[in-house]
User: What shape does this take?
Amino acid sequence: MPMYKAPLEDINFVLNDVLNAQSLTQLPGFEDATPDLIQSVLEEAAKLCENVLQPINRSGHEEGCHYENGVVRTPKGFKEAYDLYKEGGWQGMAFDPEYGGQGLPHTIGFVLEELMCSSNMAFAMYPGLTHGAMNAIRAHASDELKAQYLPKMVSSEWSGTMCLTEPHCGTDLGLMKTKAVPSDDGSYRITGTKIFISAGEHDLTSNIIHLVLAKLPDGPPGIKGVSLFLVPKFLPNENNEPGVRNGVMCGSIEHKMGIMANATCVMNFDDAKGWLVGEPHKGMRAMFTMMNAARLGVGMQGLGVASVAYQNAVVYAKDRLQGRALSGTKAPDKAADPIIVHPDVRKNLMQGKAFIEGARALGYWVGMMIDLVEKHPDPVARQEADDFVALLTPVIKAYFTDMGYEIATNSQQMYGGHGYIREWGMEQFVRDARIAMIYEGANGIQALDLVGRKMPQNLGRLLRRFFHPMQAELEQSQEDPTLLEFVIPVAKAFGKLQQATAVVAQKGMARPDEAGAASTDYLRIFGLVSVGWMWLKMVKVAQAKLAEGADGKEAFYDAKIKTARFFVEKMLPEVDFRFKSLMSGAKSMMDLDVEQF
Amino acid sequence: MTIKKAAVIGSGVMGSGIAAHIANAGIPVYLLDIVPQAVKDNGGDRSVVAKTAIDKMLKTDPAPFMHKKAASLVTPGNIEDDLEKLADVDWIVEAVLENPKVKHDLYQKLEAVRKDGSIVSSNTSTIPLNILLEGQSERFATDFCITHFFNPPRYMRLLEVVKGPKTRQDAFDTVSAFCDRVLGKGVVECKDTPGFIANRIGTYFMAVAVNEAIDGGLTVEEADAITGRPMGIPKTGTFGLIDLVGLDLMPLISKSLLSTLPADDDYRRIHRDNALANKMIADGYTGRKGKGGFYRQTKAADGRRVKEAIDLKTGVYRTSEKATLASASAKNLKALVETADAGGAYAWRVLSQALSYAADLVPQIAEQITAVDEAMRLGYNWKSGPFELIDQLGTGWFAEKLAAEGKAVPHMVKVAAGRPFYKVEGSKLLFLGTDGNYAEVKRPDGVLLLTDIKRGSKPVAKNGSASLWDIGDGVLCLEFTSKMNALDQDIMGMIRKAMGIIGDGKSGAYKALVIHNEAQNFSVGANLGLALFAINIGLWPQIEATIAEGQNTYKALKYAPFPTVAAPSGMALGGGCEILLHSSAVQAHAETYSGLVEVGVGVLPGWGGCKEMVIRHLANKRRPGGPMPALSQAFEAISTAKVAKSAFEARDMLILRPTDGITFNKDRLLADAKAKALELAANYTPPQEPEIRLPGPTAAAAFSMAVDGFAQQGKATPHDVVVSKAIGFVLSGGNTDITQVMTEDDLLTLEREGFLALTKTNGTINRIEHMLETGKPLRN
Assistant: This one.
């Protein structure tokens, strides 16, 4: 059976020493979010994840969800786990106190997301979708809707979904067929079919609040005519308790490769009553509030699954005795050496460690930026933080989930044939990790978002929020000779990213196919350089800590420096390959006639 | 006869504006008006009316004078004491009240004093020539014509001229040629019919556009979104244009037209008394000159400026909203009228009536269609004239659609019988004559248009931002073709390519280069978007390379073995001004607005602009002694982004040298520039690089103190201080002293370093970003 231990030591290092999360207490509303408080919250979260969620991860995977006559049952233990989650008040941890939340920083929400996805990704998706729906309602719905629905969702009594996809439209939502017709009482009647609706139906909560995209009769054609509606499974009665059943039914659930314990539903809306969220025809704007947060959340799923898969790979590599080290016996008292002595095994493990720790720092940093967007008193600082988040969102979604899958499968590889046996649990990580590359905008779409939307926006203003501070840090770090072995490769990779950016922007203006062809390579370069920057930051902290006496954590800081070295020497060179591929342009990609395939 | 001295009678807005423009051209002119009754009764300056008009013009913006000194060429006077001064005047322009009696009385007085062979013209816009001539002598009738200027006379290019049956052809030709060559007007001959060409068609168009907007339930913004960009009649749209010319003028023009138009004229059918407009005028909402018009600017509670538009139904102002009609983004005129929405329907209703009206008026109001199109382009700023618009729809299609709706097909469309009004044959542009045959569109002597050259030839070289054209006699013309004529690497590349093709200017096919284009603006400077993107990703080496490339290219041009003549018109700012500074000579359109405005976006002139201004000011023989006054003038001009508002002002600022030429008629600019290039090429030696001595830190300290002083007085913003000090450092020569000889390259290095350092500041980045997003400078 797989194990999971929340990596609190590393999390604290990132929050307190690298990102200086204490600074959050200076923001209005976060005065109480001291490191001590955060520490105790995280310890509780670790307990929930290690003791409640992780033990039902594999059983949930094996059992899956059950569907019968429109009713969905989650696997054994999920309801009990959900009740504990509810009692702990986790749903409202980082949410607005006005609606019953605890108002802790989003940064901590990002940590919780990672831990929950490590321990049980399928479970984490139920509250995750509720969270997305809460954000959209808070940002766009009327005060009445907010007052009526948010407290119930914050308390975990009710859950939420987002209903976008239809049988014939996924990426291109302009093709949508679901209709909304206004009623005399100010509500709307929604009719249509939505598919791939995660958590669309289940037995964890007494009500489910669907946020549904649909078209109004008088709307403009295409994506500009789409509006967002709130459609509850049960219409709340006068006491705001679930009352009459609305015209929403789960038609079936999908049989999937992974996230077996999460119900992926076909939802039929038949003259269902709903209310407009935001302005008519501005549904995509409201939906993007959910989607942007959701995309970052999916990125954290990639990190979370990578982290648990890596932990189990380490356990096995230390434990599994097979053959002898190439350089001579390392465990003479045993029948064979543990496989961790082998360079290729090390490579896989180091790759996992270097990605996970670097990505963790980057992910939490973006989480901190979201706190700045919401709370910083200076509008300029808010705008800068918002730009940074917008720019990094596609990078985190795509790079983290690509790597999440790669590390899950590399970790499975450590198990040899046992990795392919279900009981060992490694195959679940591979299966669960795979969906993160696909949903919330497939990774190819993320790359297009980066080069097509984020890059040219305001003539590169978003890029400035990344390039200028990183350039400044590189210049400043160059003055320290002990850092040179890290600064030089990171600076070179940064230079490649600059050149790639200029080339993609220039080519993309004249020939969109060129930007499209470059996009995936470009996003990967962006991801590698971003994580390279994080490693530079972490090396600097580790060196400083060692210099001032590491307080018994010498091995931890020493490992940081050595892992950073691995990253710049073994992983960062991928930038060169990607750069070369990018520079070769679109031609060889597009040259064949369709008939030649 | 040539016109060496002129007089304008009547110093109202038009009369004084005409006098100012005659003075702009260097011609002495009398400006006479009445002696007011109060002065007659109580004494005082008997020429006070004309004097007041001149004083007022010196304060008017946009300025009627191209240079303050031009005002000294206007001699004020009055029609009681100064009439005999008209005895030595060659041309007298009458611009008094639009009242035949007043005019007739004046003409009698003029007849008594004016010399034989002198010419009298009336600036009437409404009174037919035959009425003006009633009761006048034979001598007067032979020397008389109408010259109808548009307001403001300096800026509006159209001049309508009308001759009577007795007008001497040579007198008429003299005035026409003078207005064309000396005053720079686009002279269009009209027949003696009400409203001549432009007002007749323009008024009809505006009336029909307003009426149909009201009837069709369109908002002001929607109507302007249709008549504006897709139709181009003009860019401001109809309501925007009415706001600009003044709502109160509309009923006046309408009234005068109605008093003279034929009984069956279609304007009588569509004309309405517009209750909303009447109320607006009564309440002082006369347009931009009043409290506002169909649009107005107000301040919201938080101090933000809000653009509002009037609701055509209720007459209440509301926040202006961008029109969202699909038809407003139609690809072309035909697609516009075929778009099935309110905008498409509106477009057709307006065009079907207005274009039919115009097409029925030839040959009634003008000999040929070309005059009508030219008049509407130059007088009302239409992007295309009515016959060009019908061609865009197709004459056959237009006729069929009218017929299908049971409407009459206008005369000239019948003549066309499905053929286009204009067509190109080989290199020739042909138009359809009233006789149904095609004839070539002839340009006046001395007019050379790039448009014509391009129609008949292939470019010698071409890239994404510039082209090279052979304009004959061994002269190449470099044309910018980039968006807004923004300067970029491709343009630099094309300059170097031109230098390669021309070589030494002796052994090859070409001997000189002209830099010219026919866009509204010569160039407003470097492509800021590209620069900002490079700045945003911190690609400093690329920015430095771009600066160095521009510096090297411009310097190479300056020292090339062949002459380069820049021929700008409209705005020549920043990098566009720097190219003038590096040309061997400039032949400027009088309406050239030039300056080094880089501080507006937080940088300094980095393509040799600082360097050239230093050299020119140091070499200026008229400056007081010592380098400091010279450098101070350069510093003031650059650090305040001063713009010369005419070619004459550019001379004051040393952007133009005394030897550089000025052309009044834009259509004659290229020919003049080419002539200048050939003249220079005859015996050309490139300039010698000067030795430059600059004071260094002492001067920089003086500039720095001055800037701090401005900041204390609140005249300079914090980032103005940063940018100005960087400019001061470059202009003073950096860390040099007066004993050291500096080269041009030394100054270029200082420019480059200063430029690069500024682009790394947030203040500069914010300025560039703001300029690109709003089109306005940021005062940070």
